[in-house]
Amino acid sequence: MASIRINDEPAFVLHSIPYKETSLILDVFTRQYGRMALIAKGAKRPHSTLRPVLQRFQPLLVSWSGKSELRTLTKSEWVGGTPALVGDALLCGFYLNELLVKFLAREDEHEKLYDHYTHTISALSNLEFESKGLEEILRPFELTLLQQTGYAAALDHCVESNSTPISGEQYVYQPERGVRPAQGDDPGHWPVLSGRSLLAIAAGDFSAVETLSESKQLMRFLLGLHLQDQVLTTRQILIDLKKI
């Protein structure tokens, strides 16, 4: 396999671990190449040009080369313009990163999800100026992640009637199938949603209290269904703090 060189790719650092005495191994989320593993040689040295820019939740342009699974970072440039996450917003940022690490395979392209991640980080970084709360910011990202990775069916389509849900009717989300009318003998752990909420969620409108509450149940169900025994550490902290 020939060595590949990529220049100035939009990216965010999701996670980093020390490597030997002076280097870092980075898990980055890029727009065109998905999650990439990059080694940042010498990044821990005091005068390294990489050291000050390799920060989480900051938009970067990164360049790399190599042909193995672990490529070599050759340049990283801070794009700027995003205030640092603090407090609850910072914890939510770690939650987003943990979701991406658990759901995305390496080098699997997700441009739409990358754009949504960028938008969500921007909203969290400007939380004090946002009209939306944390839940209204997080729910659309969770839904986009699940749908882009193939773990959630369309919510504005009833699989039994092959039609749009009716606003005043009740529906369940059946695993492996999708949305269908609720029945009396449905398992109790399947999330029940009104047709009104399903249509609102599908349209990205989480402003109604009922929609926000029912979307929380749906997201918890779908995330738990596909993570199975894996624990989302940051999510549990947020739940304990009753932030989401």
From TrEMBL:
DNA damage among keywords: yes
Domain DNA replication/recombination mediator RecO N-terminal: 9-80
Matching SUPFAM superfamilies: ArfGap/RecO-like zinc finger, Nucleic acid-binding proteins
Pfam families assigned to the protein according to its UniProt record, in alphabetical order: RecO_C, RecO_N
Keywords: DNA damage, DNA recombination, DNA repair
One Gene Ontology cellular component: bacterial nucleoid
Chain coiled-coil ranges: none
Biological process according to GO: DNA recombination; double-strand break repair
Superkingdom of this protein's organism: Bacteria
Keyword hit for Nucleus: no
NCBIfam families linked: reco
UniProt record similarity statement: Belongs to the RecO family.
Role: Involved in DNA repair and RecF pathway recombination.
HAMAP family (UniProt xref): RecO
Name the UniProt record assigns to this protein: DNA repair protein RecO
Source organism (scientific name): Polynucleobacter antarcticus
